[in-house]
Amino acid sequence: MHGKRSILAVGEPRGERDTLIRRTLIATLAVGSVMELSAWLASRQLHFGAAYSLKSLLVFAAGALVLLPGLPAHHPFARLGAANAVTLVRGALVALMVALLGEQGRIAPLIATLLAALVIVLDGCDGWIARRTHMSSSFGARFDMEIDAALVAVLSLLAWRFGKVPAWVLLSGAMRYLYAAAAAIIPLLRRPLPASYRAKGIAVVQMLALLVAIAPWSSLTLASAVAMMGLACLTLSFLLDILWLIRHRLQGARDA
Hints:
CATH topology: Four Helix Bundle (Hemerythrin (Met), subunit A)
CATH class: Mainly Alpha
Distance between the termini: 33 Å
Number of domains: 1
């Protein structure tokens, strides 16, 4: 993998970088086209607003503009790969969910629930595919993590906008971005954290809790209870990460 990374970084590399970007653009356009067709059909058949397809397109395009610049430096292969293609599809589904904000009618919560369930199911596939195809990369891991964070943010917004949970639920979606903002001014928080099954498990719990919260069949009491549980677990996870960083910083200072 290190060899491939160096090939993409220097020398003959330009051809491979161009191939990677071209193939990624084709995949992005293909996924985006299917997404837009789905959004157009939803607008017609489910009576969403005329701007629904435009909103989903703008969100997806913004995500693609963030995705493409970092691809050559962090993805050591000449093609996007099946795993990242699955993550790209997850991103399109999240864009369709974002576009539901502001849509009226009883059908919106049901569609949001179905889309979120599909995004969560696919979340269990991309990492497995990357390992099976021997195409794991730092880009793929970060791409997957950012889609997870976006999903939580959108679910928390929908839970609030649908009137299922009070505004405090927005903390669930904001916490990942508040941590990143804090890391920009606190060097300690920029240190890498080890891979953790605890963190991955809590991320899944958070997504499932918010999925239950937005479901049209969930009562207001149940929605608030599961959303509060998810927020508590997420808060605990971030606190444990910060404590780990502090402990290892102090240990490093003692060893020095």
